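Milestone M4 deliverable, item 7.
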Amino acid sequence: MASIGLRKDLNATYDEALARLPEALQAEGFGILTEIDVASTLKKKIDVDFRRYKILGACSPPFAHQALSHDLEIGLMMPCNLVVYEGDDGKAVLMAVDPIKTIASAGDPKFDELAQVIKGKLQRVLDAMK
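Output delivered:
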């Protein structure tokens, strides 16, 4: 399967990764706007058990403002989603959206550079996580 995002297998547990991720994001100018507990939602809605899995919506207000000021429709590709889930080995897996595959795919050259900058910041977030 082709990679649809940036990925890092961590030595940390799921809980440790979730506890440290906000600080790593903040160091790159991001904050967490949304949090979806997939396992809990699936249990509640369709009564199935699923591994611990969260989708986090992260935002950098200056980048969001810049993108939305240029094209309001780009909001469909925001925020920058990150996923933390518990791997089969009990260690956390961290993934981040690849902005090259989202906002840069809008076909507007103005978003190409922005996507590169955001991708670099998200990669540094992953690199900071252990």
